[in-house]
Specification:
Distance between the termini: 27 Å
Protein name: Transcriptional regulator
Helix content: 55-70%
GO biological process, one term: response to arsenic-containing substance
CATH class: Mainly Alpha
Pfam families: HTH_5
Largest sheet: 3 strands, antiparallel
Number of strands: 3
Domain HTH arsR-type: 1-85
Keywords: Arsenical resistance, DNA-binding, Transcription, Transcription regulation
Strand content: 5-15%
Structural class: alpha+beta
Order of helices and strands: HHEHHEEHH
CATH superfamily: Winged helix-like DNA-binding domain superfamily/Winged helix DNA-binding domain
């Protein structure tokens, strides 16, 4: 199931963004990937069901991060993918940093 999730571009980019940023809310991932809320929420739900992500509520926000109990080899695959393919996150990272309505608590990893 791990590699099947990586095969879908939005799920791969979401995982890599979370690997890079630590924790993000749905609105930040939407902005970074330039996708709609229903589409991003559907992909994040799939990643959560697969055990790759965990979420927490903070007021009206749902924050996602990589599951700290994820197998080490999975963490290594994500790390290596991020290192070997920095171009994958160039545009999403730019969109995220340009986000004018980014919630204050979302701008730091928890």
């Amino acid at each position: 199931m791990f590699y099947k999730n990586l095969a879908e571009e939005n799920r791969l980019l979401s995982l890599l963004l979370l690997k890079q940023e630590g924790e993000l809310c749905v609105c930040e991932i939407m902005e970074a990937l330039n996708q709609s809320q229903p589409k991003i929420s559907r992909h994040l739900a799939q990643l959560r069901r697969s055990g790759l992500l965990v979420d927490r509520r903070q007021g009206q926000w749902v924050l996602y991060r990589l599951n700290p109990d994820m197998h080490n080899w999975m963490q290594d695959v994500l790390e290596r993918t991020l290192i070997e393919n920095p171009h994958l996150l160039e545009e999403p990272s730019r969109r995220l940093s340009d986000m004018s309505t980014r919630p204050i608590f979302c701008s730091t990893s928890a």
